[in-house]
Design goal:
The chain is of the alpha/beta class and about 425 residues long. It folds into two domains: about 5-225 and about 395-410, 3-Layer(aba) Sandwich (Aldehyde Dehydrogenase, Chain A, domain 1); about 230-375, Aldehyde Dehydrogenase, Chain A, domain 2 (3-Layer(aba) Sandwich). About 40% of the residues lie in helices and about 20% in strands. The chain contains 13 helices and 16 strands. The strands form four sheets. It has a seven-stranded parallel beta sheet, sandwiched between helices. Strands 5-4-3-6 form a four-stranded parallel beta sheet, sandwiched between helices. A three-stranded antiparallel beta sheet has the order 1-2-16, with no helix packed on it. It is globular, with a radius of gyration of 23 Å. The protein starts with 6 loop residues before the first helix and ends in a 7-residue tail after the last strand. The model has no long low-confidence stretch (mean pLDDT about 95).
Length: about 425
């Protein structure tokens, strides 16, 4: 493969092609975009063996990664089918482009409509997450956006195999191949070129570790849609059903420890401290290391003492900090002090207490009697997600089709002139 080695030149060339493709996509009919995404899903299924072989090559080189990161990187047959099913789901979603958000009329007869339009060109920078290639490509396409995907070196072979399937889908529907471009190099200098590509890229979405996201937020001259980490909490209230609490806590931590929706801190109401031994035993028996406050340390020889740093740590591993709080107000205060505004949950049978938690905890996703592992665009009914945003501007929580649009105001008159 002939690759332009100058990052700025490569970024300019890719950006100009993406902008040209974006103009085509902005006017593409819903049926054509959906046809392309379904063809992508079919190509992924047909190329499952090729994708698996590429992923095996990535896995063989990724011995330096932690078990949680290797789990993110790994593509099993079930996960490959899950990618394809997610694309089919995206193809069936309502098209937000052209939707009238609101309309009104002024006394002078001018009629106003606020209408959804694509963002333009979306830049994705991601690490050991090969599924992002498919999710981002399909979501950007269905929302009328072109995208430039920059995979990390750990997932590059997988990303190339998946990207080939996306291009096949574009070709099948007669849409520009430049609608979804994969950066052909893992040179880190290209990240800097993307971050400086104002006028070529309209928004950057980083999907990776805290170091990557912090760099993007610090250096970008392009708007950024991101979260630094998922320091998520589950609060078990004194009015919680014990069996439900155990099931939710174990699932929230141990279903997949390496995803951003994993519980990192368990908070137990002092009024429910009698349930602490069972909660901790359930986590320990599931293979989780529990770092607990001194009051709980004597409950099990397997427990370890918590440190101040643990409250602010996203482990992405089978490790959990455990604390005691004084009711829902104590839980709210702890989350406010240590949370990352990503995903936090309460387990309680008291709707008044639940309502207080849900309204006071300022996170992108808050749950009542459900696992934090539901922090996922597919579980929200979005088919997939381009990322989970924890900021306050434009989009929050799982970002899917609607979050990849902005709006313009269309004004219709009958000859009005302003006095």
């Amino acid at each position: 493969m002939n690759v332009v080695t100058n990052p700025e030149m490569l970024m300019t060339a890719m950006g100009e092609r993406a902008r040209a493709a974006a103009r085509v996509l902005a006017a593409a009919p819903t049926a054509v975009k959906a046809e392309a995404v379904r063809a992508m899903a079919a190509a992924i299924r047909a190329g499952a063996g090729t994708i698996a072989a590429a992923n095996a090559a990535d896995m063989a080189k990724a011995t330096h990664l932690s078990p949680a990161m290797r789990d993110r990187l790994k593509l099993t047959p079930e996960r490959i089918e899950g990618m394809a099913a997610g694309l089919d789901a995206v193809a069936g979603l309502p098209d937000p482009v052209g939707e009238t958000i609101t309309a009104w009329e002024r006394p002078n007869g001018l009629k106003f409509r606020r209408v959804r339009v694509p963002l333009g060109v979306v830049g994705l920078i991601y690490e050991s997450r090969p599924n992002v290639t498919a999710d981002a490509g399909a979501l950007c396409l269905m929302s009328g956006n072109a995208c430039i995907l920059r995979s990390g070196s750990e997932a590059m072979e997988s990303a190339r195999a998946i990207h080939a399937c996306l291009v096949a889908g574009l070709d099948a529907a007669g849409l520009p191949a430049d609608s979804i471009q994969l950066v052909p190099t893992t040179d880190r200098a290209f990240v800097g070129a993307m971050l400086a590509a104002s006028g070529l890229i309209d928004i950057i979405v980083p999907r990776g570790g805290k170091g990557l996201v912090a760099r993007v937020q610090a250096e970008a001259r392009v708007p950024v849609l991101a979260h630094l980490d998922g320091n998520n909490h589950v609060y078990v209230d004194g009015a919680a059903d014990p069996a439900m609490a155990r099931a939710i806590v174990v699932n929230a931590k141990m279903r997949r420890t390496g995803i951003c929706g994993s519980m990192e801190t368990l908070l137990i109401d002092r009024a429910a401290v009698a349930e602490a031994p069972a909660l901790l035993a359930a986590l320990l028996d599931a293979g989780c290391e529990c770092r607990v406050v001194p009051e709980l340390l004597q409950l099990d020889a397997r427990l370890k003492p918590v440190s101040p740093e643990d409250w602010d740590t996203e482990y992405l591993d089978a490790v959990c900090a455990v604390g005691l709080v004084d009711g829902v107000e104590g839980a709210i205060a702890h989350v406010a002090a240590h949370g990352s505004a990503h995903t936090d949950a309460i387990v309680t049978g008291d709707p008044v207490v639940a309502g207080r938690f849900l309204s006071a905890v300022d996170s992108a996703i808050v749950l009542w009697n459900a696992s934090t592992q539901y922090a996922d665009g597919g579980e929200f009914g979005f088919g997939a997600e381009i990322g989970i945003a924890t900021g306050r501007l434009h989009a929050r929580g799982p970002v899917a089709l609607e979050g990849l649009t902005t709006y313009k105001t269309v004004v219709t008159g009958t000859g009005q002139t302003r006095p």
